[in-house]
Amino acid sequence: xxxxxxxxxxxxxxxxxxxAGGCGTPTGPSAMLAQVAVAPSSVVAGMASEAxxxxxGPAPSGGVSVTxxxxxxxxxxxxxxxxxxxxxxxxxxxQTRVVAADTSATITVTVGAQTRAATLRIMAPLARPxxxxxxxxEPTLLRxxxxxxxxxxxxxxxxxxxxxxxxxxxxxxxxxxxSVSVPSGAVSATFNxxxxxxxxxxxxxxxxxxxxxxxxxxxxxxx
Length: 223
What we know:
Strand 17 (202-210) and strand 18 (213-222) form a beta hairpin. The protein has two domains: 33-123, Sandwich (Immunoglobulin-like), CATH 2.60.40; 132-222, Immunoglobulins (Immunoglobulin-like). The protein starts with a helix and ends with a strand. The chain is mainly β. The protein contains one helix and 18 strands. The chain is rod-shaped.
């Protein structure tokens, strides 16, 4: 027959055994910061890329807070994100700003004392060469012998060598120079339109052309 003291000893022994063996679900090692990837890794300035932070295993209860930083202000991103419990990754958008020259931004993510980084290349937009946009004449109604002011406009600033626009009148009643040059860095240039004597109202056209682009404006000359 087992006495009271013996029964207490058995119970205590059993409790100690449970504690030693563990009575709950075993908890594995904490998930580690594995890497950060940016895709695409090269974008034209003004476009966005997506970055993904990955852990070595599922995030624990409460999730994992990740601090984010960029080495260059041309890449903007949130200051932090959270990888939700039970998941192994989370993504965020990296928005880029316009830059004058190609730039590389290092995207760094931090979890505790662990850090990982990825590089995003931000490419400056290609400058489009200037082309002829329009021709203007003021006024467009003239008495014979009067002159008008013409203006040619470009789509963007002229290159270092300038930009030449050819001019032509459909009737000798109105005279224009053979061409006009838009100076480097400018987007327009002016020229004079002269008129000769006429006996009847005369409708004509002044045409500006550069390469395969041509623009036309109508002009009326009265006696």
